[in-house]
Design brief:
D-amino Acid Aminotransferase, Chain A, domain 1; OB fold (Dihydrolipoamide Acetyltransferase, E2P); 5-stranded mixed sheet; 5-stranded antiparallel sheet; binds 2-(butylsulfanyl)adenosine
């Protein structure tokens, strides 16, 4: 009988040890060796055995759950005060700290350690003969609160220490924190449950530790990292490096990338590296703690009232701050996207005053339920535009939901939900913030091909005020241009001539030049093949456009939206009064294999051409001619290629054609073989 009890006890001890090891592998090393199911079944067996025998070892994981709620916390007096750290913000201050240390201990170089400054809450764990007997918050440094029950629910806090170097007494200090992912999940759950959100992981962790009901703490997924000690009896540790090794050996989580530094410069290097890495770390850090490694030296340096002389906290610029939304307004960017922008009560984030913040898009507003008057967290990471992370609480004026605009705030054109997604875009041709980009595109070579109107000139035309809307391009005069610093008489004449020439163009080019979303050269030509005039497109329905073979749905709706905007049509009509003449050689040339009607009799029907190198004439023109004669122009050589037209300095296409045995001709040979191509061919 005795024997059986002993067997059970031994089995329980073994299970406890196994489960604690698994916990460590899972939560600290992030490298579980067994599956969750195996863990659960071992845990259930343990509960069963403990229940049956009445024996529960002090380090049993079963003790991590189930303590009854408290009325209040007991006070916990720290035998050695838990001090704070001096904050420093610049590398000069780090060097000054090192200088002060070396002045006192009078050596050339001091060995330091560097470790992340976890943004959580400090606790002290007291182990007597290897058993966790108390966990206390820092409180005011002298007296904190006894939160033992709560801290025991944290899976990575060892409930016991075992081995041959277990001290009679040891107070271990560390930081309780929450990972960013666990924090996000917590806030998401709270949002769904309509509960107020936590401002940051630190607040959530601190709130969880100070819960009277340990089962609430247990749900919060807290973690700990251990980096210091209070009293130690019966063990000698002589440095921070030794302490960290000892802690690791006894399965305490220790600071991520703990780093001994042979001098202050290595510590500074570490600070730099951590700053670069911190955005991608799974938890928040607010700096790096630099400590004198050697405990004997620490003794000589001693403490000031609030902080030790042997350590300093290098603080990074904060990325986040709390503020209030004064208003939410639509704002339009150069690409025509209309985004909601929050006007904020100005707040300093990492040394920069932030008074505006993007809300990304209109679905985001609904998802986060952001309203005017709300208290929010804003974040500024590096050069990224500040954005709103979350809403903490709705304010007095929060009852008004933000309405999504139906017209562009700048030009009053239609605001269209793009592709049914969250992006809202202005379709206005003349929309001021978009105008510069639109005109550069309008004048570009595959569009109206206005020679001499590149980006620089476009900018100059804007800045001088000569071009305030789209139609002004066609109104420019030589005198206007000569007023600009970059123009001599000749270049002014040339540009005016180029503009005049561009006024006569094809429908395909003109549609492309309008810069309608999703309408590249191919789609523009496709439309021109099916719509004879620009007027035929006014008010066109997306359904009608999508009947065109090879026409995408996105393009169809973008084109339809564009041509259903009255302002856009007015602009085109004005361009016409200023001399715009649109021809349409593409109309009716669409290849239509289904019916075989339009193209089968054409001269180059069923022939595929590829062009490489520089031709004596514009490549675009040759391509246009081939297409108009019913041929196909392809970008790459394949067995299907009828003929490769090779100009000067041909590329790799020539090699490929030779390898495939595809016929290769010069432009001149091509002309002889296929004859001069008139527009009517
Ligand atoms: S050592 C006497 N190391 O920062 C100095 N503190 O501003 C004892 N903290 O109260 C602290 N990470 O809550 C130390 N790696 C780290 C730390 C750390 C975070 C917190 C701790 C302390 C506060 C001081």
């Amino acid at each position: 009988m005795e024997k059986r009890v002993d067997d059970t006890k031994a089995q329980i001890d073994r299970l406890v040890e196994q489960l604690n090891r698994c916990n460590y592998e899972y939560h600290v090393l992030d490298a579980p060796e067994i599956s969750d199911e195996e863990y659960d079944s071992m845990f259930r067996l343990l509960l069963e055995l403990e229940g049956g025998s009445g024996y529960t070892p002090p380090n049993s994981p079963s003790l991590r759950v189930g303590a009854p709620p408290l009325d209040k916390f007991d006070k916990a007096v720290h035998s050695i005060p838990m001090l704070s750290l001096d904050d420093i913000f610049t590398f000069d201050e780090v060097l000054a700290f090192d200088q002060r240390v070396r002045d006192i201990i009078e050596t050339a170089d001091v060995a330091y350690t560097a470790e992340p400054k976890y943004d959580g809450l400090a606790v002290e764990l007291t182990y007597e003969n290897g058993r966790l007997i108390r966990a206390a918050t820092r409180g005011n440094g002298t007296t904190g609160e006894d939160v033992t029950q709560n801290v025991m629910t944290i899976k990575t806090v060892p409930l016991s220490i075992s081995g041959d170097d277990v001290p009679e007494l040891i107070e271990i200090r560390g930081e309780i924190y929450m990972t960013k992912a666990d924090f996000d999940a917590l806030n998401e759950g709270r949002m769904e449950g309509g509960k107020p959100l936590f401002a940051n992981p630190r607040n959530a962790a601190a709130g969880a530790v100070r819960q009277l009901d340990p089962s609430v703490t247990a749900e919060r997924k807290l973690r700990i990292t251990c980096y210091g000690t209070g009293i130690i009896k019966g063990l000698t540790l002589s440095s921070q490096t030794e302490l960290i090794s000892w802690l690791k050996k006894h399965l305490f989580p220790t600071p991520y990338r703990f780093q001994p530094a042979k001098d202050i410069h290595e510590a500074i290097e570490y600070i730099r590296e951590m700053d670069a890495a911190r955005a991608t770390l799974p938890f928040n850090i607010d700096g790096v703690v630099v400590k004198v490694d050697d405990f004997a030296l620490r003794q000589r340096l001693g403490d000031k009232t609030r902080s030790p002389r042997w350590a300093a906290a290098f603080k990074y610029q904060a990325h986040q701050a709390q503020t209030r939304i004064l208003n939410i307004v639509p704002s339009i960017g150069r690409t025509g996207v209309i985004t909601p922008v929050a006007i904020l009560e100005p707040v300093s984030v990492g040394g920069v005053t932030v008074s505006r913040s993007t809300l990304h898009n209109w679905d985001e507003i609904r998802r986060m339920d952001v309203r005017t008057g709300d208290t929010v967290i804003v974040e500024r990471a590096g050069d990224v535009i500040p954005h709103i992370v979350c809403v903490l609480s709705h304010g007095a004026s929060s009852d008004i939901e933000v309405a999504e605009p139906v017209v562009c705030p700048e030009c009053g054109s239609k605001a269209v939900r793009e592709d049914g997604g969250a992006v809202l875009r202005c379709v206005g041709l003349n929309c001021p913030p978009q105008l510069q980009g639109r005109i550069i595109h309008f004048a570009s070579r595959p569009a109206l091909n206005i020679d001499g109107l590149g980006e620089k000139i476009a900018v100059a035309l804007f800045e001088s005020g000569l071009v305030k809307d789209f139609t002004d391009i066609f109104r420019l005069t030589q005198e206007d241009l000569e007023k600009l610093p970059r123009f001599a008489e000749k270049s002014a004449v040339n540009l005016i001539q180029a503009i005049e020439k561009s006024k006569t163009t094809t429908l395909a080019r003109f549609i492309f030049a309008l810069g309608v979303r999703h309408s590249g050269e191919f789609a523009s030509r496709l439309i021109a093949q099916h719509y004879e005039t620009i007027e035929a497109l006014y008010g066109v329905k997306a359904d009608a456009l999508s009947l065109i073979k090879q026409m995408g749905d996105k393009t169809s709706s973008a084109v339809s939206e564009f041509f259903s905007d009255a302002g856009n049509i007015e602009t085109i009509e004005t361009l016409k009064t200023l001399g715009l003449t649109i021809t349409n050689p593409d109309f009716g040339t669409a290849e239509n294999k289904d019916t075989g009607t339009k193209d089968s009799g054409r001269r180059l029907a069923k022939l595929t051409f590829v062009i490489t190198g520089t031709l004596p004439v514009s490549r675009k023109d040759v391509e246009g001619q081939i297409r108009r004669a019913g041929g196909t122009v392809s970008a790459s050589v394949s067995k299907q290629t009828t003929c490769l037209i090779a100009g000067e300095s041909p590329g790799s296409k020539l090699d490929k054609a030779r390898a495939l045995g595809v016929r290769t001709v010069s432009y001149e040979q091509y002309m002889v073989m296929f004859g001069p191509l008139s527009e009517q061919s």
